[in-house]
């Protein structure tokens, strides 16, 4: 009941500023033993019925946080305290990059949506690797069960023909520090990136990563994140490629470049300009893509569903359509820190 009032206040300030203010405040609370216990008891939900085993990993619950929220692995302790079963960090690129010019993140409250054109702003793989090393040491001491995924991409200045090299660098550097990988070729905010979703380009990147992966003592799950704007023919190529290169899973979906069906006035949307749209408006299309991929792969390739998940009912719909896990992002912004607990409680109620 308190969060809607807090949200209305926070929405008066720039989104990126609010993001860091809120997460740093949570960190301060998490550093105090008593407050940390209160946070955990308030927002975590544990139950055997929530546990999942997907692509060889054990998840304490199926609710994860999508890439783009904790780009630099700054807030893993804090996000774990809010009950997330897994967190996907990144998108990580080989070299640090500032991303696109600000403002680059916009709220559409009438649609419960966001538009972003962040542009893979991150500290670079070396800095993030070091931060994950500290996290893993803490994790070993505390017995944390949080699963951490590494979402990897290419630097803006890297030409597409050399993109495979960027993915190799990130994969190799982070291999010992994350539990699974997601190859991101579907962000609309890096020029030319989505061209890498074409079958031959994808095959080159994924086959190379799998060669490295299978040369390790124990391979890491490798997933591909796709856009909701692909045609059925392109999705057929993705499904075929998933078997060909032995992908461990898919993430469906990223943000959309579509602006159809929005309640926000057209002139406001046009003034915002380019970027990926997320939240409620992408829910239906993301579910269509999820359902189609599950059918085309006969349920043999696990899918993490992402797109428009705000409530327990939203989560159930994705799981009923064949998702193995779900991810929230925009829903976290609009629903607040109780989103994981609320979804988990809803999932248990139906059992």
Automatic annotation (TrEMBL):
Domain Dihydroorotate dehydrogenase catalytic: 50-348
Subunit details: Monomer.
Membrane topology annotation: Peripheral membrane protein
Pathway connected to this protein: Pyrimidine metabolism; UMP biosynthesis via de novo pathway; orotate from (S)-dihydroorotate (quinone route): step 1/1
Protein's job: Catalyzes the conversion of dihydroorotate to orotate with quinone as electron acceptor.
Enzyme class: oxidoreductase
Cofactor dependency: FMN
The name this protein goes by in its record: Dihydroorotate dehydrogenase (quinone)
Organism: Danxiaibacter flavus
